[in-house]
Amino acid sequence: MLEQLKTRWGVRLTVPDLEQAAQWLEDNLFFSIVDDDAGVLAVNGNCLLELLPGESAALPAPAAGAYFAGLAHIALRTRDIEEAITWCQIRGLDLQLDNGRRFYNPKVYGEGEYFFNIISPFGVVFEISERLAEPSPCQSPVICGMDHLGLPSADFAVAVDAFSQLGFVADFAPVENWNETEGSILCGMFGQDDPLGQRITLEIYQFLDWQAVSMPESYGIKGLLLGQSGITANGISLF
Predict the structure, then answer these.
(1) Second CATH level (architecture) for the domain 2-232
(2) Angle at Cα 215 formed by Cα 235 and Cα 89, nearest 5°?
Protein backbone atom coordinates (compact mmCIF):
# COMPACT_ATOMS: atom_id res chain seq x y z
CA MET A 1 0.00 0.00 0.00
CA LEU A 2 2.81 2.40 0.89
CA GLU A 3 4.52 1.99 -2.46
CA GLN A 4 1.23 2.55 -4.30
CA LEU A 5 0.60 5.75 -2.36
CA LYS A 6 4.00 7.05 -3.40
CA THR A 7 2.96 6.95 -7.08
CA ARG A 8 -0.06 9.19 -6.47
CA TRP A 9 -0.56 12.91 -6.61
CA GLY A 10 -0.27 14.40 -3.14
CA VAL A 11 0.33 17.57 -1.18
CA ARG A 12 3.43 18.07 0.97
CA LEU A 13 2.95 19.75 4.35
CA THR A 14 5.30 20.57 7.18
CA VAL A 15 3.93 20.43 10.73
CA PRO A 16 5.58 21.09 14.11
CA ASP A 17 4.35 17.80 15.62
CA LEU A 18 3.71 14.84 13.31
CA GLU A 19 1.75 12.79 15.83
CA GLN A 20 -0.55 15.62 16.86
CA ALA A 21 -1.21 16.71 13.26
CA ALA A 22 -1.95 13.15 12.14
CA GLN A 23 -4.30 12.62 15.10
CA TRP A 24 -6.17 15.85 14.33
CA LEU A 25 -6.64 14.84 10.68
CA GLU A 26 -7.84 11.39 11.70
CA ASP A 27 -10.21 12.60 14.42
CA ASN A 28 -11.76 15.53 12.58
CA LEU A 29 -11.40 15.16 8.80
CA PHE A 30 -11.69 11.37 8.36
CA PHE A 31 -8.10 10.73 7.24
CA SER A 32 -6.42 7.33 7.57
CA ILE A 33 -2.79 7.45 8.69
CA VAL A 34 0.13 5.49 7.22
CA ASP A 35 3.62 5.81 8.73
CA ASP A 36 6.50 6.48 6.35
CA ASP A 37 10.26 6.52 6.96
CA ALA A 38 10.48 10.29 6.52
CA GLY A 39 7.14 11.32 8.01
CA VAL A 40 3.47 10.41 7.81
CA LEU A 41 1.04 9.88 4.93
CA ALA A 42 -2.60 10.84 5.52
CA VAL A 43 -5.27 9.60 3.11
CA ASN A 44 -8.93 10.57 2.65
CA GLY A 45 -10.30 9.18 -0.61
CA ASN A 46 -8.37 10.78 -3.47
CA CYS A 47 -6.63 13.24 -1.10
CA LEU A 48 -3.09 12.27 -0.11
CA LEU A 49 -1.08 14.43 2.30
CA GLU A 50 2.59 13.90 3.10
CA LEU A 51 3.38 15.29 6.55
CA LEU A 52 7.00 16.15 7.34
CA PRO A 53 8.42 17.73 10.50
CA GLY A 54 9.03 21.44 10.17
CA GLU A 55 7.71 24.94 10.59
CA SER A 56 4.03 25.68 10.03
CA ALA A 57 2.36 28.92 11.02
CA ALA A 58 -1.08 30.34 10.25
CA LEU A 59 -1.18 33.01 7.57
CA PRO A 60 -1.05 36.52 9.00
CA ALA A 61 -3.54 39.11 7.82
CA PRO A 62 -2.06 40.74 4.69
CA ALA A 63 -2.01 44.51 4.31
CA ALA A 64 -5.19 46.14 3.04
CA GLY A 65 -5.62 45.49 -0.68
CA ALA A 66 -3.02 42.69 -0.72
CA TYR A 67 -3.22 38.91 -0.90
CA PHE A 68 -0.76 36.02 -0.62
CA ALA A 69 0.16 34.26 -3.88
CA GLY A 70 1.07 30.58 -3.63
CA LEU A 71 -0.47 27.28 -2.54
CA ALA A 72 -3.01 28.49 0.00
CA HIS A 73 -5.65 25.91 0.88
CA ILE A 74 -6.61 22.25 0.59
CA ALA A 75 -10.28 21.88 -0.37
CA LEU A 76 -12.00 18.68 0.70
CA ARG A 77 -15.34 17.67 -0.71
CA THR A 78 -18.67 17.25 1.07
CA ARG A 79 -22.02 15.83 0.00
CA ASP A 80 -23.84 18.32 2.27
CA ILE A 81 -22.32 21.65 3.32
CA GLU A 82 -24.73 22.19 6.22
CA GLU A 83 -24.07 18.74 7.67
CA ALA A 84 -20.33 19.37 7.32
CA ILE A 85 -20.60 22.70 9.15
CA THR A 86 -22.56 21.03 11.97
CA TRP A 87 -19.96 18.25 12.23
CA CYS A 88 -17.11 20.77 12.49
CA GLN A 89 -18.95 22.92 15.04
CA ILE A 90 -19.62 19.87 17.22
CA ARG A 91 -15.90 19.10 17.05
CA GLY A 92 -15.09 22.67 18.13
CA LEU A 93 -12.98 23.41 15.06
CA ASP A 94 -11.77 26.90 14.18
CA LEU A 95 -14.08 27.88 11.30
CA GLN A 96 -14.25 30.78 8.87
CA LEU A 97 -17.90 31.37 7.89
CA ASP A 98 -19.87 34.14 6.21
CA ASN A 99 -21.85 35.60 9.12
CA GLY A 100 -22.37 32.12 10.49
CA ARG A 101 -23.20 30.53 7.12
CA ARG A 102 -21.36 28.97 4.19
CA PHE A 103 -19.68 31.11 1.53
CA TYR A 104 -20.64 30.90 -2.14
CA ASN A 105 -18.26 30.86 -5.12
CA PRO A 106 -20.44 31.56 -8.20
CA LYS A 107 -20.06 30.20 -11.75
CA VAL A 108 -17.40 27.53 -11.13
CA TYR A 109 -18.59 24.13 -12.35
CA GLY A 110 -21.69 25.80 -13.77
CA GLU A 111 -23.76 26.61 -10.70
CA GLY A 112 -20.94 27.39 -8.30
CA GLU A 113 -19.74 25.91 -5.01
CA TYR A 114 -20.66 26.36 -1.36
CA PHE A 115 -17.69 26.36 0.98
CA PHE A 116 -16.29 27.26 4.38
CA ASN A 117 -12.79 27.15 5.84
CA ILE A 118 -11.17 25.38 8.76
CA ILE A 119 -7.96 26.72 10.30
CA SER A 120 -6.03 23.68 11.49
CA PRO A 121 -4.00 23.74 14.73
CA PHE A 122 -0.87 23.74 12.56
CA GLY A 123 -2.06 26.77 10.57
CA VAL A 124 -2.93 25.16 7.21
CA VAL A 125 -6.31 26.17 5.78
CA PHE A 126 -8.70 23.35 4.86
CA GLU A 127 -11.67 24.37 2.75
CA ILE A 128 -14.80 22.20 2.73
CA SER A 129 -16.62 22.47 -0.60
CA GLU A 130 -19.88 21.31 -2.18
CA ARG A 131 -20.42 21.58 -5.95
CA LEU A 132 -24.03 22.58 -6.59
CA ALA A 133 -24.36 20.97 -10.03
CA GLU A 134 -22.43 17.78 -9.31
CA PRO A 135 -23.12 15.32 -6.46
CA SER A 136 -20.04 14.21 -4.58
CA PRO A 137 -18.77 10.84 -5.86
CA CYS A 138 -18.05 9.87 -2.24
CA GLN A 139 -21.13 9.99 -0.03
CA SER A 140 -19.65 8.77 3.26
CA PRO A 141 -18.22 10.15 5.45
CA VAL A 142 -19.62 13.66 5.16
CA ILE A 143 -16.14 15.05 4.31
CA CYS A 144 -14.63 12.76 1.71
CA GLY A 145 -11.83 13.25 -0.80
CA MET A 146 -10.19 16.29 -2.35
CA ASP A 147 -12.08 18.84 -4.40
CA HIS A 148 -9.11 21.05 -5.28
CA LEU A 149 -5.94 22.74 -4.11
CA GLY A 150 -6.20 26.54 -3.98
CA LEU A 151 -3.50 28.56 -5.76
CA PRO A 152 -3.96 32.34 -5.73
CA SER A 153 -1.55 33.70 -8.31
CA ALA A 154 0.11 37.02 -9.02
CA ASP A 155 -0.62 36.58 -12.74
CA PHE A 156 -3.41 34.21 -13.78
CA ALA A 157 -2.21 33.75 -17.36
CA VAL A 158 1.37 32.98 -16.31
CA ALA A 159 0.24 30.40 -13.74
CA VAL A 160 -2.16 28.74 -16.18
CA ASP A 161 0.57 28.54 -18.84
CA ALA A 162 3.06 27.04 -16.36
CA PHE A 163 0.68 24.30 -15.25
CA SER A 164 -0.53 23.67 -18.81
CA GLN A 165 3.07 22.83 -19.70
CA LEU A 166 3.03 20.33 -16.84
CA GLY A 167 -0.05 18.61 -18.29
CA PHE A 168 -2.91 20.27 -16.39
CA VAL A 169 -6.06 20.93 -18.44
CA ALA A 170 -9.01 23.22 -17.75
CA ASP A 171 -12.19 21.72 -16.28
CA PHE A 172 -14.16 24.68 -17.72
CA ALA A 173 -13.50 28.09 -19.25
CA PRO A 174 -12.17 30.53 -16.62
CA VAL A 175 -14.80 32.74 -15.01
CA GLU A 176 -14.73 36.20 -13.44
CA ASN A 177 -16.58 36.70 -10.16
CA TRP A 178 -17.10 39.83 -8.08
CA ASN A 179 -18.03 40.63 -4.51
CA GLU A 180 -17.97 43.78 -2.40
CA THR A 181 -15.17 42.55 -0.15
CA GLU A 182 -12.69 41.23 -2.70
CA GLY A 183 -13.62 42.96 -5.96
CA SER A 184 -13.08 41.11 -9.25
CA ILE A 185 -11.64 37.59 -9.13
CA LEU A 186 -10.50 35.60 -12.17
CA CYS A 187 -10.80 31.87 -11.48
CA GLY A 188 -10.39 28.50 -13.18
CA MET A 189 -10.00 24.82 -12.26
CA PHE A 190 -7.26 22.75 -13.89
CA GLY A 191 -6.76 19.01 -13.41
CA GLN A 192 -4.54 16.06 -14.15
CA ASP A 193 -4.72 12.33 -13.31
CA ASP A 194 -1.85 10.41 -11.74
CA PRO A 195 -0.81 6.89 -12.86
CA LEU A 196 -3.46 5.33 -10.58
CA GLY A 197 -6.24 7.49 -12.02
CA GLN A 198 -6.48 9.77 -8.98
CA ARG A 199 -7.13 13.35 -10.03
CA ILE A 200 -5.53 16.47 -8.59
CA THR A 201 -7.35 19.73 -9.35
CA LEU A 202 -5.87 23.20 -8.95
CA GLU A 203 -8.03 26.26 -8.41
CA ILE A 204 -5.94 29.02 -9.96
CA TYR A 205 -7.24 32.50 -9.26
CA GLN A 206 -6.20 36.15 -9.18
CA PHE A 207 -7.69 39.07 -7.27
CA LEU A 208 -7.70 41.60 -10.08
CA ASP A 209 -8.15 44.68 -7.86
CA TRP A 210 -5.56 43.70 -5.24
CA GLN A 211 -1.77 43.40 -5.10
CA ALA A 212 -0.14 39.98 -4.77
CA VAL A 213 2.60 39.41 -2.19
CA SER A 214 4.71 36.29 -1.65
CA MET A 215 3.38 33.47 0.50
CA PRO A 216 5.25 33.40 3.84
CA GLU A 217 7.91 30.68 3.95
CA SER A 218 6.57 29.61 7.34
CA TYR A 219 3.24 28.48 5.86
CA GLY A 220 2.86 24.69 6.00
CA ILE A 221 1.76 23.87 2.41
CA LYS A 222 5.02 23.27 0.58
CA GLY A 223 4.08 21.82 -2.81
CA LEU A 224 2.59 19.06 -4.94
CA LEU A 225 4.04 15.59 -5.14
CA LEU A 226 3.96 12.88 -7.80
CA GLY A 227 6.22 10.01 -6.83
CA GLN A 228 9.71 11.36 -6.21
CA SER A 229 9.18 14.64 -8.08
CA GLY A 230 7.20 17.65 -7.01
CA ILE A 231 6.17 21.20 -7.74
CA THR A 232 7.05 23.89 -5.26
CA ALA A 233 4.66 26.50 -3.93
CA ASN A 234 5.35 28.94 -6.76
CA GLY A 235 3.90 26.34 -9.13
CA ILE A 236 6.84 26.25 -11.49
CA SER A 237 10.09 24.96 -9.89
CA LEU A 238 10.64 21.24 -9.30
CA PHE A 239 12.00 19.75 -6.06
Answers:
(1) Roll (3.10)
(2) 105
